């Protein structure tokens, strides 16, 4: 009997060890040409990964090492960013072009290797150069080390990845180049998509252009919702179904019940859905939230759809039920969702730092600037062209070496300067009529970074402006999650805002949709050495300069310092 018990104990220990042991998750991403036809357009070539739109979903468990071999067979330079991955100890794998690496040239390759220790939930990956993110993207799902039984919410019966995107009928690289060369913003998308397909409500919609999800009545599904769109926040609804949000940006939240999810570009939401409706067919719908009305640029006022079909439905060709769409300018609904979630507190997880070392007040918004020398088609006899900035500094990435290489080699001269301002150069009525003043709108180009000591705690007020147009900017920080202490409308008033700070269970995210014509306060600890991009996740605004970089200095040990670059790090041509 003792031998039997010993054998059973050995098997049990082996099983536990196999569950707890981290693995290496390895993929090869061939980035190349892919022929596709959408919206009754002739087949055209896009850039995609492994001939898929969206690209492959990467599944990993907390603590795993992810290895992705990028093979660039496309005609364009390429990088990949692992959106929301903290990249502790692996800053060379972060991916933004000319920030942490030079691009992978056509015919070249590079291996991204990073760990997902301490992270669980839905993240994603995408190209981080030009406008290639429009077609080069996919999901990154990180499950708990203990499997689905370790979720801090009721175990779902199944999961579905739901990636929202935007589609253009033109070549997105050429579109970005023309926008830069002329100084005229690129046109809006021709359609929104769900899992790469526009759905039933566009011209010439076909059956193979609508995504389908099958469910069984009374079962619970975890929807992993990602806004991979380029420039548009989206409302997401499922007809006749309510959702319970349990996570955002791979950070668990307390259960938040809603009939509409709002996701700005770059953000993710994990939501439970019980298939409790009558057996039938129902539309999922993604429609635009345009916070810039009436001042902002044109946008596509259309709706992407997918079909939620119950198993056993008799009439598989019956028209699905369509949810009621929020108004495109429904800021009240968007703000209620963005501000309504709180964190699910868990032992051993980060809590809000209470002592602040550095305070920053940063304006974000549009403006104008002079034509740059490289803008060869810019009309220099006309008024200034569109630009964007943070604290009136419009960011330009370097051309000959990446910021991280310059930092590591201690050779910043000629690459970047350490003078990003903690406050705007001029104090004015940021959201009022004074913003119409042409002097206020003018900005200059630079490559300014903010240098932080290792382990420094930063509190940043993000103040939206009405320069050109007020709108909700999705601000993303690479290399960190941050706590959202408070948010509101109008000009930030510290005396009243501090009383509203949530220092107990605030949301933790990597991308925040700053309220249109409003402000948000975030706080984070700079405990990750490297060069970390902070930017608006509207790609149209990144190219205009709505960005900056945090330079986080090394800590006291090799483990808290930037390691040497990998041998295959791409070189600038």
From TrEMBL:
Enzyme superclass (EC): oxidoreductase
Cofactor note: Binds 4 Cu cations per monomer.
Catalytic reaction annotation: 4 hydroquinone + O2 = 4 benzosemiquinone + 2 H2O
One GO molecular-function entry: copper ion binding
Domain Plastocyanin-like per the UniProt entry, residue ranges: 34-145, 159-312, 419-554
Cofactor(s) it depends on: Cu cation
Signal peptide region: 1-22
GO biological process, one term: lignin catabolic process
SUPFAM superfamilies in UniProt: Cupredoxins
Assigned keywords, A-Z: Apoplast, Copper, Lignin degradation, Metal-binding, Oxidoreductase, Repeat, Secreted, Signal
EC number(s) on file: 1.10.3.2
Any single Gene Ontology cellular-component annotation: apoplast
Pfam family, one: Cu-oxidase_2
Primary localisation category: secreted
Subcellular location: Secreted, Extracellular space, Apoplast
Family assignment from sequence similarity: Belongs to the multicopper oxidase family.
Function of the protein: Lignin degradation and detoxification of lignin-derived products.
Name this polypeptide is given: Laccase
Organism: Oryza punctata (Red rice)
